[in-house]
Design a protein that fits this description.
Layout: H1 6-18, E1 25-30, E2 35-40, E3 46-51, E4 56-61, E5 67-72, E6 77-82, E7 87-92, E8 98-103, E9 109-114, E10 119-124, E11 130-135, E12 140-145, E13 151-156, E14 161-166, E15 171-177, E16 182-187, E17 193-198, E18 203-208, E19 219-224, E20 242-243, E21 249-253, E22 259-264, E23 269-275, E24 280-285, E25 291-296, E26 301-306, E27 311-317, E28 322-328
Antiparallel strand pairs: 1-2, 1-28, 2-3, 4-5, 5-6, 6-7, 8-9, 9-10, 10-11, 12-13, 13-14, 14-15, 16-17, 17-18, 18-19, 20-21, 21-22, 22-23, 24-25, 25-26, 26-27
Length: 329
């Protein structure tokens, strides 16, 4: 029988205890509390509650995961949180009533929807310098940057449009009519489609962008509706949208229906409806793509969904009126 020395056992134990933790962090913006809840993604325990400016809604991480950007709508400011120290380290002059943002792939530029001014503000992240302001429709909200950083899509709630901005010229180059009160716009990774959610219209508009060089030629080719037995149609309000890592599914929180729809991107058909907490607006996938976290505004919690089984596993309390979610490894 092989003998193992006490010293070897002790050394192994020390190495194990010193091994780094690979737990990620889930960030949730709490509109009512003016806070960001940071949770350990393994234990789902609250690590810290971070005080920010008034009415935090949209949150987005830098590509290197070192900073979290928080749009404080009533504070007319963007707080920047160091994800290591979990402290607000600086503020960016975002313009009035920022709501949602998108960051380019290099982490150099952030695009901000300024709802009150009907503008998209383009800002250098490091310096905070405003590089440009692009007039769009009334009440801009959703922001999506294409995978090659060539275009940014913005939605305007009251104009019922998705606006396409050329990121090099910083000019508006196309307007696409969708359904009532569009909320989010996201390009597929292959740049062949743009998906736009419309809260009041109750649909997802799929825009054919295959003629990538000519945004004026882009057209809506499919509108995806929702139907749940026992739920009134007006309660099926698509807001956030999140593609699975392989791009085969889209998760769509449906607001007052208390459901998350799961859409097959190939067939453009709803595959499933997952019951969650009350009034889910936005969610986010875990970096490994195995979990989907959705914020439930009226039950003050997040629901954890298993992506493989499409089952809700548990709900975890956060702050009051949770709105946005961001997840880092």
């Amino acid at each position: 029988m092989t003998r193992i020395s006490l010293a070897a056992v002790s050394t192994a134990a020390l190495l194990l205890s010193a091994a780094p933790s690979f737990a990620g962090t889930i960030f949730v913006s709490n509109e009512k509390d003016n806070t960001i809840t940071a949770l350990n993604s393994d234990t789902l325990e609250v690590i810290k509650t971070i005080k920010v400016a008034r009415r935090p809604r949209g949150i987005v991480l830098s590509p290197d995961f070192k900073e979290l950007f928080v749009a404080a709508g009533d504070g007319d400011i963007m707080d920047v949180i160091d994800t290591k120290t979990l402290e607000v380290t600086r503020q960016l002059e975002s313009g009035p009533d920022p709501e949602l943002m998108a960051v380019d792939s290099k982490g150099d530029i952030i695009y901000i929807a300024n709802e009150d001014d009907s503008l998209v503000t383009i800002m250098d992240i490091k310096s905070g310098e405003v590089l440009g302001e692009v007039p769009v429709g009334v009440e801009p909200e959703g922001m999506g940057v294409s995978s090659d950083d060539k275009y940014t899509a913005a939605t305007s709630e009251s104009t019922s449009m998705s606006h396409i901005i050329d990121n090099q010229s910083r000019q508006l180059v196309a307007n696409i009519l969708v359904d009532s009160r569009p909320r989010e716009a996201k390009f597929t990774k292959d740049k062949k489609e743009l998906w736009v959610s419309s809260e009041v219209g109750g649909t997802i508009s799929v825009v054919d962008t295959s003629n990538w060089a000519d945004p004026k030629s882009w057209k809506v080719v499919k509108k995806i509706g929702f139907e749940v037995q026992g739920v009134r149609p007006e309660q099926l309000q698509p807001v956030g949208m999140d593609f699975s890592l392989d791009g085969k599914l889209v998760f769509v929180p449906l607001g007052p229906s208390n459901r998350v729809a799961v859409i097959d991107t190939a067939t453009k058909e709803v595959k499933d409806y997952i019951l969650v907490g009350q009034r889910p607006w936005h969610g986010e996938l875990s970096p490994d793509g195995k979990k989907y976290y959705v914020a439930n505004g009226l039950t003050n919690d997040i629901t954890v969904i298993d992506v493989e089984s499409l089952k809700a596993e548990k709900s975890v309390p956060v702050g009051r009126l949770p709105w946005g979610v961001a997840v880092m490894p």
